[in-house]
């Protein structure tokens, strides 16, 4: 381990790393960790143009389809391909977590912690011209940014976005053929970017970012033309189902990319140099928050799993490197959910990184994988 005192990190954070057995030297690896981009399918011909414009060489990742690495100092926002929505910046570890879902065209996918939305955009690309994607986030302002992203990349045709608490969210995927509406029934019309009066009024009053509470009903803030919402009677959107019905009517794939301390995201931690290390104390290290986080992570995973159909796949990921937010959550979840089975991530055979403390789980980190830090576990639901 590198001498921690040589690193520009505050003592409280070093103590946090130490008590969680995390090597502080990952935070000095930032200069050698590349940046990653994903070309939207069909736009890979623009690579040469991108290289010429940014005066850099991009390298295709052999272990992750559609992904390229480039030197860390390149600011992709300045490129035409980015401005025209042909590429997005997404870490390769995040792309791997999405790949672990094994999405097939036609799947109904739930992304329970969706904002700001890089993984959601990739999921939308993968479902193709059938199926649907439902994105949920508790933070209205963050999900609004996600809506902007979905529109920028023109991938939202099959997407629904709900501001809701993921620990209680219960809306099932739309079922084909259910939207037969009777005359005089109020149905959803095509989505328009003109925000409803109620939303504008709320936004004008809102000074601090808004989070919804567990008991608030979900609020639909975006839906695409083929998301199953257009033409649906308004009362039917929030239809829920019993656990028995969910076995067949639930989602095919669920991603729970849970809220965490973000300590594995070196770029995120480095931002505190500008924001002030005291903010890091409040946002990351506060012990009470960390305790609360474990409960939140377990509840998100449990509810995401409840909404999964039998035989479906759920991926749990966090960008924390602590065992408490990853393996401990997985162990507790498996103890409490007899229909949950941890399964091997086949693609991980080719991934850089290493297995987690529990067999079949995977860990990315800047030192061993040359990516941002991410923990990934995959489950399926079985009949017992
Ligand atoms: C790690 S970020 C997700 C990143 C996202 N998947 C992506 O790829 O861009 C975690 C998200 O969880 C959201 N979140 C926190 N508590 C939540 C809850 N109870 N229900 C739903 N979302 C929640 C946060 O607002 C945050 O946007």
UniProtKB/TrEMBL annotation:
What GO biological process terms are annotated to this protein in UniProt? Answer: RNA methylation
Specify whether tRNA-binding is a keyword of the entry.
Answer: no
User: Which residues does the Swiss-Prot or TrEMBL record annotate as the active site?
Assistant: 319 (nucleophile)
Q: Does the keyword tRNA-binding apply?
A: no
- What species does this protein belong to? Lupinus luteus
In its UniProt record, a GO molecular function of this protein is: RNA binding
Q: Which residues bind S-adenosyl-L-methionine?
A: 137, 165, 257
UniProt protein name: SAM-dependent MTase RsmB/NOP-type domain-containing protein
Domain SAM-dependent MTase RsmB/NOP-type, which positions?
Answer: 22-382
Write out the entry's keywords from A to Z: Methyltransferase, RNA-binding, S-adenosyl-L-methionine, Transferase
Similarity-based family: Belongs to the class I-like SAM-binding methyltransferase superfamily. RsmB/NOP family.
Q: Which domain of life is it from?
A: Eukaryota
